[in-house]
């Protein structure tokens, strides 16, 4: 089939590349000519493991194309996906649909023959109806159906998530649209991946509900970690103890500095606003948003306390800047809140991240970006583990101790155990576990 993907951001580029790998002919369209030129030259604008080779292979096979010519791409398509950004609107937390609405108008002018127009972006309930209305107003004669097909891609494992998903959700009102979507996902359908057809409103809400629930699990275990520190329990054992319950599950029960990234922060806010507008406010999701916002300040305070409540003139090594490993995404990363708070208390910051430093340079001020973890720790008064990159999981602790002015590590991801850090002679502070004090 012929597919057009409007938007070459994270969702659009990964989805377009994977659809082309399924055998479809895919054109990814973007208004940013520089980005399209870069993609045509083989330059991938985001870091996602395996994406560069996936794109290259399908470009070479003449199945994947990049263009700024939306009209031509839409005219020849069987399905057109809207995969543009829906950031939180400043001031109120509502999802900004201006890019979606602009794409709808452009698509309307280009439609030629029967086409299924699909919202792939994460959008509030009712957006598919809004897009349909815009297209009909612009082109009353257009022959099209609408569908909603939310993505469930985790940054760092997006290709695997697309090709081997837990389920595919499609909201569609007509058999004709459902058949097109079924053909697009035929390789997964043959592998017996659950293909869930719903109404469009249900499909849109499934996406928000899923992200809000996962954000709730993260926030819940973070609060349990706070209790563990007060009563002398171990949050990792608590997590394992409840996660082995099949009704709860083990995933997203890792205590840390709070959630970030491109999805959870904006989607929880958007769901709160959607619920308020619908007259069914969600106090649980609102509490998750509030607790997560406080979490990052608490983590800065944890670092300050571990450093003797005095950061004046001290140098802190920050290991990890992105909101999670295997991505260069800095959006709403805890580091963007924690580092400025440490600086406000007098700290000098030396930082290293394997992929996120280029993005971080535009977001953080007065930070010395280093070549590697050891470079960041040289001469520092303490090291803070902020992102659980694999290369931080096996640091040479003897070398680390020699580089630091004092053997002090604050591990906000529980990468190490208190026992091994005690044996290595470190003062060690982690999340939801009793601290190890140097002798």
Short overview:
This protein is an alpha/beta fold and 439 residues long.
Strand portion: 5-15%
CATH architecture of the largest domain: 3-Layer(aba) Sandwich
Counted up, domains total 3
CATH fold name of the largest domain, please?
A: Rossmann fold
The number of distinct helices, counting runs of at least 4 residues, comes to 18
Binned, the helix content reads: 40-55%
Shape: elongated
Widest sheet: strand ordering: 3-2-1-4-5-6-7-8
CATH superfamily caption of the largest domain: NAD(P)-binding Rossmann-like Domain
| CATH class division of the largest domain | Alpha Beta
- Provide the low-confidence segments as ranges: none
Query: Mean pLDDT, nearest integer?
Result: 96
Word description of this protein:
The protein is α/β, with parallel strands linked by helices and 439 residues long. It has three domains: 2-198, 3-Layer(aba) Sandwich (Rossmann fold), CATH 3.40.50; 208-290, N-(1-d-carboxylethyl)-l-norvaline Dehydrogenase, domain 2; 295-429, NAD(P)-binding Rossmann-like Domain (Rossmann fold), CATH 3.40.50. The protein is built from 18 helices and 14 strands. Strands 3-2-1-4-5-6-7-8 form an eight-stranded mixed β-sheet, with helices on both faces. Helix 10 (200-231) packs across helix 12, helix 12 runs antiparallel to helix 13 (283-306) and helix 13 (283-306) packs across helix 14. The protein is elongated and about 75 Å long.
Key structural traits:
18 helices, Rossmann fold, 14 strands, eight-stranded mixed β-sheet, six-stranded parallel β-sheet, 439 residues
């Amino acid at each position: 089939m012929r597919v057009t993907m409007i938007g070459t951001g994270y969702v659009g580029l990964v989805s377009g590349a994977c659809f082309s790998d399924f055998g479809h002919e895919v054109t990814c369209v973007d208004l940013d000519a520089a980005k399209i030129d870069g993609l045509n030259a083989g330059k991938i604008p985001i870091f996602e493991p395996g994406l560069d080779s996936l794109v290259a292979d399908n470009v070479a096979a003449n199945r994947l194309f990049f263009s700024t010519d939306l009209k031509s791409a839409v005219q020849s398509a069987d399905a057109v996906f809207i995969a543009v950004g829906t950031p939180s609107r400043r001031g109120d937390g509502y999802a900004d649909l201006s890019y979606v609405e602009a794409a709808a108008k452009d698509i309307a002018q280009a439609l030629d023959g029967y086409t299924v127009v699909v919202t792939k972006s994460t959008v509030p309930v009712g957006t598919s109806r809004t897009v349909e209305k815009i297209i009909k107003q612009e082109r009353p004669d257009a022959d099209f159906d609408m569908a909603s097909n939310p993505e469930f891609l985790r940054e760092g494992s997006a290709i695997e998530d697309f090709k081997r998903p837990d389920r595919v959700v499609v909201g569609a009102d007509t058999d004709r649209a459902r058949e097109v979507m079924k053909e697009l996902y035929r390789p997964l359908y043959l592998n017996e991946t659950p293909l869930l057809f719903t109404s469009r409103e249900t499909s849109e809400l499934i996406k928000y509900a899923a992200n809000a629930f996962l954000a709730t699990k993260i926030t819940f275990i973070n609060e349990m970690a706070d209790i563990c520190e007060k009563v002398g329990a171990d949050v990792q054992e608590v997590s394992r103890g409840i996660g082995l319950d099949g009704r709860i599950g083990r995933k997203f029960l890792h205590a840390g500095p709070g959630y970030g990234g491109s999805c959870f922060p904006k989607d929880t806010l958007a769901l709160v606003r959607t619920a308020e507008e619908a007259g069914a406010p969600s106090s649980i999701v609102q509490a998750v948003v509030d607790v997560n916002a406080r979490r990052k300040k608490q983590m800065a305070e944890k670092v300050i306390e571990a450093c003797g409540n005095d950061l004046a003139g001290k140098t802190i090594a920050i290991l990890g800047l992105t909101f999670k490993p295997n991505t260069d995404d800095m959006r709403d990363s805890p580091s963007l809140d924690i580092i400025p708070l440490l600086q406000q208390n007098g700290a000098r910051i030396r930082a290293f991240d394997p992929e996120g430093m280029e993005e971080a340079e535009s977001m953080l001020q007065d930070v010395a970006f280093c070549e590697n973890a050891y470079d960041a720790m040289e001469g520092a008064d303490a090291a803070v583990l902020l992102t659980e990159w694999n290369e931080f999981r096996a640091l040479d602790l003897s070398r680390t101790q020699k580089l630091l002015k004092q053997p002090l590590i604050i591990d906000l991801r529980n990468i190490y155990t208190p026992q091994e850090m005690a044996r290595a002679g470190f003062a060690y502070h982690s999340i939801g576990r009793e601290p190890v004090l140097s002798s």
